[in-house]
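Can anyone check this?
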Amino acid sequence: YNFIGKTAITGHSQHKTEGMLLNEVLRCSTSRALVNEKESVILEFMYVHYGKGKEDPLQHVRFYSKNATASARCFRLPECAYEMFSPRKFDEYCVRVFVKEPHLVAPVREAFERWCRKYNNSQVYPLEFRV
């Protein structure tokens, strides 16, 4: 399968099904024939996190002092000690699009970009795309 791109879930897309969004994307094509290629296009929701969902995973890690003895107790690192080096969000929820047929890469990418601008108010990644 060929990866077309991904974009963020926004207010427009968060309450819709994958099938509903796929229909919207295909209807954004300049070619009406693309709507008939629905079986060759895959649109899926993707949820990725660091193992703790929306929670900061470092809040579940305990540390020992460098000079700790065998009887020393572990401690949790205060958030202010690492917040500058840590992401603001610990999960990502997005829409990904793939095609099964190589000849559909360019028209589906064009339709996906148009859908993102017109309806979803989002950006497609990767920004630069080579067919």
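Reply from J.R.: I decoded it. The first helix runs from residue 18 to 27.
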